[in-house]
Structure formats: C-alpha cells, structure tokens
C-alpha cells in the first residue's frame, strides 16, 4: 500500500497527552495519518515520579478501553504507548513498587512472571507499547534519572532489561528501551536545561551491555537520549546525532525502530525550533518523534512535508520511517486475525 507525504509526516509523530481528554487533538491527527499516541503525565507527576492520587482515583479501566476503541475506529493500526519504567514512572499504577524485589536475590522466573502479569493487564486495556525499560547504568549523580533508575551492577540492569522485554513482548507489548547510549552521570537535568554527557568512550562502551541485552532479545524500539554525547557528537543531541545513530545501527547491528526522546527538551532543541529539530532527527535516522501534543502538530507535519518538497529531507527516508512505525501495529493485527 502506498501513502501520501501527508500521511507519512503524521505517522512519524508520537504526541504525548497528559490526560485522557485527547479527542479534540487526536481525532484530526489520526485521520491525517497519525498512528501512535502516548498517554503521558503532567510535569508535576514527572518530577514527582508518580501519578497524583486524584488521577489514580478518577481514571477507570473502562475509560482506557472506551478511548482506545474510539481511536481505533479512526486508525485501526494504532500504537498506544505509556511510560512504564521498572523503578520509575508507571503511568497506570502510579509508581512501580519494586522495593521488595532485591535483584540480587529474586529469581529470573519470579521477575518474569511479575512482568508477564503486568503485560497481561496492559493488553486487556489495549496498550500496545511501553516506553521502557530504562537501560542506563548509573555510576554518578544524575538528577534526570533520580528515582527512575536503581543504582546496581551492570549485570543486574542487563538481566532486568532482558526479562522485562521478554515478558512484555511475549504478549505483543512492544518495548522501547531507553536512553541510548546510556547516561551514567549528568550534572543537570536535560529535560530542564541544556547539558552534555562528558563520560569517556571506554566507560560508555562498557555500559552498553544492557542495550546489547535488549537488542539480543529483539527489543521493538530503542529511544535515544536527550543530551549530546561529547565523545560522539558534542554539537547535536543524541536524538538528532547521525554519528550516534550510525554507531547504534552499525556497531551494535540494531535494525529496529529508533525513537527520539522528547523533542521539547532544551538539551535537544539547543536553540532551534521544534520544526527544525524534527527534520534534523529524521535526517539523522530517527523513525518516531516524541513530542508534546500541546505543540502545533499540523505546523510540524507541514514543515516536514515542505522539507521533502525542498529537498531538505529525502522522501524515501520519511517513507521508511513511517513504514517502520506502521509495521508494529500491522503485525499485531495480522497475528490477532
């Protein structure tokens, strides 16, 4: 099946909504070719690493099911994503409770069954994708990942990543492992201000073991980090760096979906407009662009289209990215028919 440029421009966008009142924005987005949505959280919830009690008490399972049924009448091949981090943000449960799970003592079978049950609950709601697990191995301070990732051995993180992905994807819940290439130490929060990963290359390569584990078990996607990585490309953020993306594809032999971090982050924008950053990310090899639904999605899509028309973005690159996104939901529909 062939698609128009407009359909492709919307297909590569992943708008994040901070509540379930998405219909006014989501309906035209889906009708124009959008096929992915993220049910995210408010800035306050993100900072607190937990959903507020009011949301937890108000939102019901039937609200999610009804919303996704409505959305799929417009876009049958829909990717529905949420944030789900083993030790951090959990969009549905408020906050993941893994305090009782000492990774040094818990069995792999117990951990697998725990996540298999989580996956079953997600599937019953209609969730098809999670932004998780976090594969960053923390060795220093990191205000960005504070209370989102546990400090433990690289082996423990690698095993957690592996088991998380295997359990969820066994029930066709796609996992987007994050944040490549791994941020062991950051002085500032890249979601709040521009910053740079200054870790030496030897350490970065050593800490890739958790991402290698994810790739070995066929993680559906990998999300790039927000901050620039000095030893690869100190000019462009990880989410817009062709050098870093080429490294992911060629050195780690990764062939799956590549997702940007939130394009609204100061560390990604670095003084540019979000329109420019969207095109730069696509040119660099990103397939799916995460951004707030509060942006003018039509304006961004139009800018991408005009970039194709002017030759600033290759038509085939856009088409390949859009098809990679669509193929995730296509495969599920084929398997369920």
UniProtKB/TrEMBL annotation:
It comes from the Bacteria. Keywords: Glycosidase, Hydrolase. The keyword Kinase does not apply. It is an enzyme of class 3 (hydrolase). Residues 119-327 form the Glycoside hydrolase family 3 N-terminal domain. Gene3D superfamilies: Glycoside hydrolase, family 3, N-terminal domain (3.20.20.300). It catalyses: Hydrolysis of terminal non-reducing N-acetyl-D-hexosamine residues in N-acetyl-beta-D-hexosaminides. One of its GO terms (biological process) is peptidoglycan turnover. GO terms for molecular function: beta-N-acetylhexosaminidase activity. InterPro entries: GH (IPR017853), Glyco_hydro_3_N (IPR001764), Glyco_hydro_3_N_sf (IPR036962), NagZ_Beta-hexosaminidase (IPR050226). Its EC number is 3.2.1.52. It holds the Pfam family Glyco_hydro_3. Belongs to the glycosyl hydrolase 3 family. This is beta-N-acetylhexosaminidase.
């Amino acid at each position: 099946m062939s698609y128009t440029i407009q359909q492709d421009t919307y297909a590569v966008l992943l708008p994040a909504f901070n509540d379930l009142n998405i219909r006014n924005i989501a309906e035209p987005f889906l009708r124009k070719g959008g096929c992915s949505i993220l049910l995210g959280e408010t800035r306050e919830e993100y900072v607190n690493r937990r959903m507020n009690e009011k949301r937890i008490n108000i939102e019901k399972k039937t609200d999610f099911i009804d919303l996704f049924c409505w959305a799929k009448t417009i876009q049958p091949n829909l990717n529905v994503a949420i944030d789900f981090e083993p030790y951090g943000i959990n969009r549905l449960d408020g906050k993941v409770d893994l305090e009782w799970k000492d990774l040094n003592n818990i069995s792999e079978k117990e951990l697998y069954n725990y996540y298999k049950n989580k996956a079953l609950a997600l599937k019953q709601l209609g969730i098809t994708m999670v932004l998780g697990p976090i594969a960053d191995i923390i060795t220093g301070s990191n205000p960005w990942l504070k209370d989102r990732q546990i400090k433990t051995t690289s082996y423990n993180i690698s095993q957690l990543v592996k088991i998380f992905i295997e359990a969820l994807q066994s029930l066709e819940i796609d996992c987007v492992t994050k944040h490549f290439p791994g941020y062991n130490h950051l002085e500032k929060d890249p979601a709040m201000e521009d910053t740079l990963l200054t870790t030496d290359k030897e350490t970065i390569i050593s800490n890739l073991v958790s991402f290698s584990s994810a790739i070995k078990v066929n993680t559906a996607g990998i999300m790039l980090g927000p901050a620039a990585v000095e030893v690869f490309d100190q000019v462009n953020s990880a989410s817009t760096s062709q050098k870093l993306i080429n490294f992911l594809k060629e050195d780690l032999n990764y062939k799956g979906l590549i997702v940007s971090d939130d394009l609204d982050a100061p560390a990604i924008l670095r003084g540019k407009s979000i329109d420019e950053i969207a095109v730069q990310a696509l040119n660099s090899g990103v397939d799916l662009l995460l951004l707030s639904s509060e942006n003018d999605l039509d304006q961004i899509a139009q800018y991408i289209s005009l970039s194709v028309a002017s030759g600033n973005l290759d038509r085939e690159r856009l088409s390949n990215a859009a098809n990679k996104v669509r193929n995730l939901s296509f495969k599920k529909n084929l398997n369920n028919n």
